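Slide 14.
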Amino acid sequence: MTFISHAIEVALMRLTEELIANHAHCADTVVCAQGRFYRAEIRLEPIKAHELSQHLAE
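Slide 15: predicted structure.
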């Protein structure tokens, strides 16, 4: 698993923390970037610690 940039990794971590703090496990919205509109969504799926290596290899 890799990220395009450190900024995206940090943004996803902050978004995840906000969702958990608000007892939510998904969010979706429409965003505008570079003059185009995009539907964006995030879904949190908890994983067990012993399964972490499997997910990092994807």
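Speaker note: Residues 6-21 form the longest helix (16 residues).
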